[in-house]
Structure formats: structure tokens, C-alpha cells
Design a protein that fits this description.
By secondary structure, this protein is mostly helical. Helix content is 71%, strand content 0%. The chain is built from 17 helices and no strands. α2 runs parallel beside α14, α8 packs across α11 and α12 packs parallel to α15. The two termini are 62 Å apart. The C terminus is likely disordered.
């Protein structure tokens, strides 16, 4: 009976129930059973029970608990998913939120610092120390700028490192990580020196340092070393840009890394098209092909499964901790053996697994966000066409999407001068496998009948052609006796068929093939 219920439930709810419900529930029950009986004891218990046919009934309670707990986790999976999209306004959530805000600020500063360093490298390599190409520095970077002596020392150390690497390079370039870091720091110190309004290019010390750098960088080997340093900074820029992309803009920041990935996904559409991604995605979803929807659903299922797995592991740690508190005398008695060291190891292992599952959920969310962003880019115009709009330019599209954002989220009316048209009709609705198989069978039958009719018709026409050729041979002698001056007439078709009779009223007109 339990197997029948299990089969019906899984068949009706599908793989979402299996992965997001039964899998975390099974891990929870297995972990709790292993903690109280040990893994060897659990295996021995299973062998004893499964070796007797009647003993299978004793496992019904555990199976029913597994199905019930799996259904609970399946039912609340969207609630757990939505917890990461809630911006807290008080309590512990705000403390976590401010930590994320500080991380976002550091990510902004790190990205801007590396971008300025790339500018400094380009000032040497591309612009050849042109004083007109010197740009300003942001206020926060000027405030933390060290003294003139410190900048000159860092610039001189980087310059001497370039000279050292150039002299020791030989026929092949060999440079260490530490040397690249020193060179990059020296280049940035030089750029700070010439871009700071307190000194600038006209300062004697700065002018002398620029001239020294010109002499050092004037050579093919030195240029190659500086290009390696710039490429290293560009890699840092890419990493910093990716790290900044995991945060939302403005006040749309969440207290967790997974929540910030949701916010960054919404900002993707808003920054590029003037409409948040979630609002546009709700319309794009319904015009996607079936296989694309299945792919996106599988990616979302991965996130939901990992989130439910985190919940199951937290429940394991909570149950183990509560049972130890109760059995060791801090509450109720008789819940189990008092083994605080073993319980502490289990709780620590659960936390480690929670962190790993959380990292996996963040990675799965990045994959899902990439797919959603790509589909929004590819299908947004098709969605606008289904809504009855056909923008002609990028500006028209941007203006239309901004209006639709206010229309969908704030119920703000659209402009009256917007041109609309009937949505393009979609193709034939997708047919079920049964209908396709039935149509294929009917088509094969029609093809077979048509083939038989064509073969019979071909035999009949071949016979008529042979008879007609015999009559032509008898008339050849008479035709040769005609006068040569008479114009030759084009030969008639070898098959002379009488005209088809007109069909009577109500009879269908045959169509020639």
C-alpha cells in the first residue's frame, strides 16, 4: 500500500517532489537514524528487518514519515526560496544587511582602484607620458594618498624592478609575482604623483621621476614587462567587476549573497532596458519554447533542492543539539545518551555541509541568472510583439519598456500616441505525442494508398503508350508521301486522352497532380 501511495504521489508531482522534497527528507531521516544507532547499527537493523517478509510492515511508519516530510519540504520550497528576496527593516537582518553594504562598498573601491591602475599603465604604454592625458583621481583616493616621499619611494622601487628584470631576463622573459606587484605599485604611485593637484607634472620631483621612467621604459624588453604588468591588472579588473556584479544597486541590497544575486538579476534589465528583469521575465516566460522552459525549470530546481538540503541539515543540527541538552540534564530526561563530544562533531559537520550547500546554491543561482538574462535579451522583442508593439529603434524600445514598467508595476497609463497592432498569431499549438503518432499513422496509410494508385495508373498509361506506338507505325508510310512544301506540324502528345466530362452539380472537381 505504501509503495502504491509513493508511486502515485511521485507520478503526479514529478521530479520536483523527488529532488526538492524526498531527497532532503531522506537525508534528514538517514542522518538522525545514523546519529542514534551508528551507521553499522543502522545497516544491521536494515538487514534484520529486510530478511523477514513480515518485518517489512514495521518499516511503513518510517516510509510514511519520509513521504510526509518530503511533501512538507516540497510545499514550502518557494517560501524558503522567497526568504532570500526579503529586505529586512529591523533586528538581526539589518545587521547582516549592513555587513553586505560594507562589502559592496569595498567591491566598488577595489574595482575603481584597479581601473585607475589600468589607466596609469596606458598612460605609459599608449600615451607615452603625455601630460595632457593625465586625469583626476576620485576624492576617496586622494584622501588616502600617502605623502610625496612615500610616492616617490614606491615609484623608484617599481622603476628599479623593471630595470632588474630587464637585465636578468636573458633570451626568455622570466618574472616573478612579487616583481609584478612591485612594478604595478610603482606605476600607480607615479600616476598618483602626476595627477594629484598638490604636485602634478610641473613639480620638480615629479618631472624628474617621469623622465627617469621614460628612460627605463624605452626598450622592447621593458615594454614587454610593462605589458605583462598591465595584463595582470586587467585580470584583477575582471575579477573585481564580477564580484561587484553580485550586488544590487542603490537600496536593493539583501543580507545574504544568494539574495544579492536576485537583486543583481533585476538590475540587469533595469540598467540595460529601463525595466526590471522580473517584470519583463514574467511576460517572456509564456512565449518560450517547451524545451527552453524545461531547461530553466531544471536550473531553478537545482537552487530549490540545495536550499531545502540546507534546511534539512539545519534541522539535523537542531534536533541533535536539542536532544543532547535534554539528555544531559538541561531540560527533559530520557531522550537519548549524553554524548556531547559526538554531538558537537555532528553539529560541526552539519554546519560545514550547510556552507558547502550554500556555495552550491549560489553557483546554481548564477547559472539560472545567466540563462534568464540571455533569454530576456533574445526574446524581449518577441514579447513586445505579442503585446502589440513594434519599436523601430533602440530609443523607441527603451521608451516603450520604461512605460511598460510603470504600467505593469504602478498601473500608470501608457501614452495615448503609442501605436499598437494585433499580436502575431503563433503557429499551430503543440500536439501531444498521441496525436502526433495518430497523424503519422494516417499519413503513412495515405502514402501507401497513393503509391498503389500511382503504380496502377503507371501500368495503365504504359499499356496505352505501347498501343499508340503501334498505330503510329502504320501511319508512317502515309505521312512520308506528303509534299515537302507543306509545313510540318508539331507532333501531338503520345497519349491522347479524351476530355474529362464536366462534373454534375454537387460533385467535387478533381484536381490534377
Amino acid at each position: 500500500m505504501l509503495a502504491s501511495i509513493f508511486g502515485k504521489v511521485t507520478a503526479s508531482l514529478g521530479k520536483t517532489y523527488v529532488f526538492s522534497g524526498l531527497l532532503p527528507a531522506g537525508i534528514f531521516l538517514l542522518a538522525i537514524g545514523t546519529f542514534y544507532t551508528s551507521f553499522a547499527g543502522l545497516l544491521q537493523f536494515g538487514q534484520q528487518r529486510l530478511s523477514v517478509t513480515e518485518a517489512w510492515k514495521s518499516l511503513s511508519a518510517a516510509g510514511a514519515a519520509w513521504i510526509a516530510l518530503g511533501f512538507v519540504l516540497y510545499a514550502v520550497r518557494t517560501w524558503f526560496f522567497g526568504l532570500f528576496e526579503i529586505i529586512p527593516v529591523s533586528g538581526f537582518g539589518r545587521a547582516l544587511l549592513f555587513r553586505r553594504l560594507a562589502k559592496r562598498g569595498r567591491a566598488d573601491r577595489e574595482l575603481e582602484r584597479h581601473e585607475r591602475t589600468v589607466t596609469a599603465c596606458n598612460w605609459i604604454l599608449e600615451w607615452k607620458f603625455n601630460p595632457e592625458k593625465v586625469g583626476g583621481l576620485p576624492e576617496w583616493l586622494r584622501l588616502e594618498s600617502p605623502s610625496l616621499e612615500a610616492l616617490l619611494a614606491a615609484s623608484q622601487l617599481g622603476r628599479e624592478t623593471v630595470r632588474t628584470v630587464e637585465r636578468t631576463v636573458g633570451g626568455a622573459l622570466s618574472i616573478r609575482t612579487r616583481q609584478v606587484d612591485v612594478i604595478v605599485s610603482g606605476i600607480f604611485a607615479l600616476y598618483r604623483l602626476v595627477s594629484d593637484p598638490r604636485w602634478g607634472v610641473a613639480h620638480p620631483a615629479a618631472a624628474a621621476e617621469v623622465e627617469a621612467w621614460q628612460q627605463v621604459s624605452d626598450g622592447e624588453a621593458a615594454q614587454g614587462i610593462l605589458e605583462i604588468a598591465r595584463d595582470d591588472v586587467l585580470r584583477r579588473v575582471d575579477k573585481a567587476f564580477a564580484a561587484r556584479g553580485t550586488f544590487g544597486d542603490k537600496h536593493y541590497v539583501f543580507p545574504t549573497a544568494l539574495g544579492d544575486l536576485f537583486s543583481a538579476l533585476d538590475d540587469y534589465g533595469e540598467n540595460r532596458y529601463g525595466i526590471d528583469t522580473s517584470t519583463l521575465w514574467d511576460r517572456v516566460w509564456w512565449i518560450l519554447p517547451r524545451e527552453v522552459k524545461a531547461d530553466v525549470s531544471d536550473a531553478r530546481l537545482s537552487v530549490e533542492t540545495l536550499i531545502n538540503l540546507i534546511v534539512a541539515l539545519l534541522l539535523v543540527g537542531g534536533v541533535v543539539g536539542a536532544s543532547q541538552i535534554a539528555s544531559c540534564g538541561f531540560g527533559y530526561d530520557g531522550m537519548g545518551a549524553c554524548v556531547p563530544i559526538r554531538a558537537g562533531g555532528w553539529i560541526a559537520a552539519c554546519w560545514v555541509l550547510v556552507l558547502l550547500a550554500y556555495r552550491g546554491a549560489c553557483f546554481a543561482m548564477e547559472v539560472l541568472a545567466t540563462k534568464i538574462a540571455s533569454l530576456v535579451d533574445c526574446y524581449r522583442l518577441a514579447a513586445l510583439s505579442q503585446l502589440g508593439f513594434s519599436p523601430k529603434t533602440v530609443g523607441d524600445e527603451r521608451d516603450l519598456l520604461e512605460q511598460l514598467r510603470a504600467f505593469f508595476t504602478q498601473a500608470k497609463p501608457l501614452k495615448m500616441e503609442l501605436a499598437i497592432a494585433a499580436a502575431k498569431s503563433e503557429g499551430k499549438s503543440e500536439k501531444s505525442d498521441k496525436d502526433e503518432a495518430s497523424e503519422k499513422s494516417d499519413k503513412d496509410k495515405d502514402d501507401k494508398d497513393g503509391k498503389e494508385n500511382r503504380e496502377a495508373k503507371g501500368e495503365k498509361e504504359g499499356k496505352e503508350v505501347m498501343e499508340h506506338k503501334g498505330g503510329d507505325k502504320e501511319n508512317n508510310g502515309k505521312e512520308d508521301q506528303k509534299d515537302d512544301k507543306v509545313e510540318k506540324v508539331a507532333p501531338a502528345d503520345p497519349i491522347d486522352e479524351p476530355p474529362a466530362p464536366k462534373p454534375s452539380e454537387g460533385e467535387e472537381q478533381p484536381v490534377a497532380v
